[in-house]
Design goal:
Elements (H helix, E strand, L loop, with lengths): L22 E14 L4 E10 L8 E8 L6 E5 L15 E4 L5 E4 L2 H4 L2 E2 L2 E3 L2 E15 L5 E10 L5 E8 L6 E7 L4 E7 L13 E3 L8 E8 L2 E6 L2 E6 L7 E19 L1 E2 L4
Antiparallel strand pairs: 1-2, 2-3, 3-4, 5-6, 7-19, 8-18, 9-18, 10-15, 10-18, 11-12, 11-18, 12-13, 13-14, 15-16, 16-17
Length: 270
């Protein structure tokens, strides 16, 4: 494989690629640019829809080409008459669990790119009929990797990982583990006035057992967050940032954390 180092400077101009005739002006989004080495040109693809009737499944991938990243030619679309949707994409590495099922974990090269890890002491939080929080770090910045090993006692109702939190108001984004319901849900907390976060589909089924240890990993890069636990991954997108704190909570039970660490820096390529 041949690698080519490219030096580039961000343009101060605004690239205008208005919706072409026949495409929905409200669904013209998520452009992505790549280099086509065989043709010696840049390829830009974006998500679109033919017509403006959302009841019809007319999703398209349209494409433009350019030699200089300034002048673009419209090349039509991938007309397969299939419904396509743009959104958050994060690559995962799949592996086989001991029971033969597939699990997801961070790509090794991505996780190993983080450096200068800060370690934190273990802790235990106990509560009855309430939700109690332990703030772990006050300022995560907007790029971080977080790792901890957790365990909870029998009868514990729920626990959660909160980030981008304002400690004064308690407003934060939250991955909440509903133990009795066997699921993890992403939401904004407090979710009042309803709704604070459009989180339809932002949950995963997961079976967690009391007194067993589980490793949690969280990667946050500005407006994208990905949680990993026991082979389950959950991506989320968020734009409002109430604060910079990160903490763990427990509801009606006992919760333990150990081997906790965080990194806010990545290695630079040489």
């Amino acid at each position: 494989m041949r690698f080519i180092r490219v030096t580039w400077e961000k343009s101060k101009g605004i690239l205008k690629l208005p919706p072409q005739e026949g495409y929905d002006r409200r669904n013209w989004r998520d452009p992505f640019v790549l280099w086509d080495e065989n043709k010696g040109e840049y390829l830009l693809i974006l998500g679109a829809r033919k017509g403006e009737d959302k009841r019809k499944q007319t999703g398209r991938l349209v494409k433009f080409t350019s030699r200089d990243l300034e002048e673009w030619s419209f090349e039509g679309d991938n007309d397969k008459n299939s419904y396509l949707w743009g959104g958050t994409f994060v690559p995962h590495e799949l592996y086989q669990r001991e029971d033969g099922t597939l699990g997801a974990k961070p790509v090794d090269s991505l996780w190993n790119a983080f450096k200068e890890w800060e370690n934190f002491s273990g802790f235990c939080v106990k509560t009855i009929d309430t939700k109690t929080e332990k703030i772990i770090i006050g300022d995560t910045g907007d790029l971080m990797a977080f790792e901890t090993t957790i365990r909870f006692a029998e009868g514990t109702r729920a626990f959660s990982l909160k980030f981008y939190e304002d400690p004064e108001s308690g407003t934060a984004y939250e991955y909440r583990f509903l133990i009795e319901e066997n699921r993890v849900v992403f939401d904004k907390s407090p979710n009042y006035p309803w709704y604070q976060c459009f989180n339809i589909g932002l949950e995963r089924p997961i079976l967690l057992e009391a007194e067993k240890e589980y490793k949690i990993r969280l990667i946050v890069d500005d407006t994208i967050g990905t949680l990993y636990i026991n082979g389950t991954a959950l991506n989320a997108r968020f734009y409002d940032k109430p604060g910079t704190a990160l903490g763990m909570t427990v509801t009606d039970g006992t919760f333990y954390c150990k081997d906790t660490k965080i990194s806010k820096k990545v290695k630079k390529e040489r």
